[in-house]
Amino acid sequence: MPGENLSRDEARERAALLSVDGYDVSLDVRSAVGGGDGEDGAPRTFRSVTTIRFRCAEPGATSFADLIAPSVTALSLNGKDLDPSEVFDGTRITLEDLAADNELVVDAQCAYSRTGEGLHRFVDPEDGEVYLYTQYEPADSRRVFANFEQPDLKAPFRFEVRAPEEWTVWSNGVGELADGVWRFAETKPISTYITCVVAGPYHYVTDSYSRTFTDGTTLDIPLGALCRKGLAPYFDADDVFLVTKQGLDFFHDHFDYPYPFGKYDQAFVPEYNLGAMENPGLVTFREEFIFRGKVTRASYEGRANVVLHEMAHMWFGDLVTMEWWDDLWLKESFADFMGAFALVGATRFQDGWITFANRRKAWAYRADQLPSTHPVTADIRDLQDAKLNFDGITYAKGASVLKQLVAYVGQDAFLEGARRYFKRNAYGNTRLGDLLSVLEETSGRDMATWARSWLQTAGVNSLTPQVLLDAEGRIDELAVLQEAAESHPELRPHRVAVGLYRRSEGGALERYARAEVDVDGPRTVVAELVGAQAPELVLVNDDDLTYCKIRFDETSLATLKDGLGGMTDPLARALCWSALWNLTRDALLPARDFIGLVLRFAGRESDIGVLQVLHAWANSALVHYVAPGWRPVGERLLAEGALRELRGAEPGSEHQLAWARFFATVAAAEGDLKLLKGLLEGTETIEGLAVDQELRWAFLEPLAAHGVADESVLAAELARDDTASGKRHQVRCLAARPSAAVKAQAWAQVVESDALSNALVEATIAGFAQSSQRELIAPYAEKYFAAIERVWSERSIQIGMDVVRGLFPGLQDSEETLAATDVWLSAHETAAPALRRLVLEARDDLARGLRGQACDAAAEGASSSG
Length: 866
What we know:
globular; about 850 residues; alpha+beta; about 20% strand
């Protein structure tokens, strides 16, 4: 990885020197089918011929082009042949004595990828068919063709691809097949990282979209959706097209800038590292968004949100692109916000802001409290920094900040600012100031001060209500106290709604008063609520207008512990759950108390997305935050509660399905495992519960982890589901088995070998790290610290991230593991900053878990002493 890095300073220097007029890229991927990989383990390769036309501001200067390839066959610059061995070092092509106008031609052998980076090659185990797709962000197009790999050197691209006769090929532009070659229309000026090629015997469905604008012009957009042939029976393309059309209508209504990239294809591809990628005209998604079994409404909502997120990128990111990765938020924060905004404004998923408050912001809160936290506008020194900054701050915190911005300047001013931003900067690159200037125009507000607080400082504030009552039991004063961590002391301006709640005679917990206020500084008085009846619950940040951690006064917390299930407003309820989880993570609420709240009230949760998040949080509380001695008790209570809710749920409902999946994650007792085995074999039934193939695998993992399902059982299940999805499930279950030999094999396959694809690496790691097998995997803590620097240097950054994050010995939750982590960090101060960041983040999670365990143990001691 070190030779593949590119610094911000190098990129700025090159951008000042060069401007690109266009690319012609010719790929020959007929080598993707037939035969094996190269001799002596060399990678299978394809031919890539690139012609780049570019200008140089300082004739005679030296620069470089980017290319990661096993070999270069021929090179020429301005008609002069160059010796590849002299100018190509495996990652860069040195370009000397540049003219004012230049033409570079590079004929290379590039490698197919098995890590989801570059041109990924996948062989479907079901039918042997080969599928290809590209994935580049932030800088992997150089694995496919020679280029200037940075976002501000935009250019038009013309692609042509030679492929096996029976294949179809797609790219950003419309394509035609002639004389055995697929040729694609030239793109608008775009960045290298959003070019795309998809090729293979994909199942392809078409539709169309048409829009007539107020000026009488009509826009017609051909729509397409594609997936592997093996997934075609499950592909609900009609629903994908429905959301696509709703999104196009919504963005045309609000952006006043017609979709600029011609067609709109959406490809669902195998072994994808991300959720999706916004390549203009050809968006790529992970194929897990095609559901092989029954899923809850939350899964469909999640897919719709991603479709709309990527569509928003056509404007925020593709049409107007950040100059460098420092301003990654200019596309990701906006797309994350616009995904939820359009979801609620245009689709059947009217509760999208509940999901945002409960799920997306939890991701942001975690990231913003790590030692690696950073401002929304980050300091991105190089490409490794950029890769790691696709995180909860850039996405979810940034989107939360934009939601606060809308409350600050008003929705109309915000959208008018976006419209001016697109028109002024179309097909160009921008920085923070370019957006702030138009927002100042449209809102009349001081955006520089707002940006300094919200975009250029890190950390999350906590807001706590303080209530004083008069002699008649009414509010004499209500204030909001704002706190910040010592490490990030910024107190920000917050536009918040403060809600007052009381229980009715029937037990419903309902809001009876609300006021909006600008919180600024350590203490802000909410004058509008003076004189109101005494509340049982004060909810700061009601309606989720700002980004903060909500705290409670003693009365409010006691009310929630007794009556959370009676809160009638689903968004308010989701905000309270999120606040309680933050209290648990901050060691302010014993984890067993949080589990108790889930057991008492989750069965009454109407929002299926919130329920599934509660299941995940309860399991995390059990694994990481309860006192170790209480884990068996908590496990039993959660399993009993999950089974009770499973049996009591409406037959065939999505709540029943959610409880079934949660029951499988916490099942450990002999009777629970026997029930799972019986449900698989058909000797046990629960009315309405259809045990489809995906649910079968969910039941098999705990059976494998507890030694009930052996290798032969898993082999039989793979024979039943001999597909790519089935293979991933089987690999995970195989690695989950409670055997020292199994763990040794899994470790060797991931750490000592690069034979597994990215998807199977991910599955193996998931199976290896079982919370019920802490003692079994304890010996790998020392091996982890001995191996990670080598893995980071030898493997791709994606695999390096998977290994460093996934195999960190966090289940060895002790001060000894914390000390071992500190020893490694002290001894590796010069290690790659991105690697150190990953280890520091894992250390922080471990330390947080230990603090939570101490809080939980103290509660146990207080209970026993009482």
